[in-house]
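Quick log. Single chain, no ligands specified.
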Amino acid sequence: MFLLLAREIRDQIYDALLITTITDPPQSVTPQRLINPKDWYTYRSRVRVPWRLPPNRGSCFGLMYSCRRVCSEVVESIERYGGVFFELELAAVGIPYRGEEESEEDLQSFYPSEEIWPTWIVFPLCAYPAINTSGRSVDATSRELMAANSKCQNLHVSFKVQTLGQFRWPINAGLEYVPATLFAMLAKFLLVGPLGPQSTVKVSELARTRGSMWDIDTLSVNVMGAGTRFMNPYDGRLCTVPNEAVEDAANGLIGHMETLCFSGALSGRVRVVRLAVEGEIKHEWVIEQGRRLLEAYKKDWGAWGWVIEHAKANTQQEEIVDANPGHPAPISREQQRSFEPRCCLVQ
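-> predicted structure:
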């Protein structure tokens, strides 16, 4: 029955599915997975970013698997817009830790630690679609298509502030938790796509997989939350986010995003980066495509989780081995295939 609809109507359905909201995140972080603030410093070395609602296979997954003709039409809709759209919400939560000499005023002005709680809002596909129209084998076509990076037209990140105080932004012997987490999540997206940020695999290990890398046309970050109310997950009190907390988060992000944009780290992978505050664009950086991150900085950036290119591999071996010593155990071929864009491949 679906194919009996006019092509114009089917295209409208495809376009709507590509930007469909898959979840409505709660106003406040729920307390189920929170930790005792007094145990934060011993726990932090093994804590992972807590994804509240892991993404399904995408709002377009069912249509992509219905038949070859519908899959082809969905791909045409995606190509018409220059790639797929993703929206990610990051709830930035301050951890109220009280030391023996800290007063209530200290806690309201500065949080020693933070957490990032991410939720996918728009998630059309877990892998970029590919169709075998050449008559050749699927495996040969897959390898050829994987040579080109997958396309994300817009990755929109809502940075929702949920604190009464300030986050830690300055660089002190490395990136602080919030900017380091944001950098690592972006690197994982560029490295293996939308399934990367919530992966528990280290970035250095993901770099040894052979899945398709992703390029982003427009990366936009919107810092928001001033005047909104949220429940303190540790004591149940309703709190109102002050304007100063949002302004501080925006100012902290500006410095790190300028470093990211001017360093050459995004060259060839991202076209433009925008920073907005409460929906109003404040800064825009057009990436200089010919510039590259200096070799002297690559080791430090790699330690912060900034790895966006596949590591060199010995394809003659059964396992992929990183050229750099001291890394964790090699990734098996089974792990490697788990990041290949097969879920939307029409066979």
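The first helix runs from residue 7 to 18.
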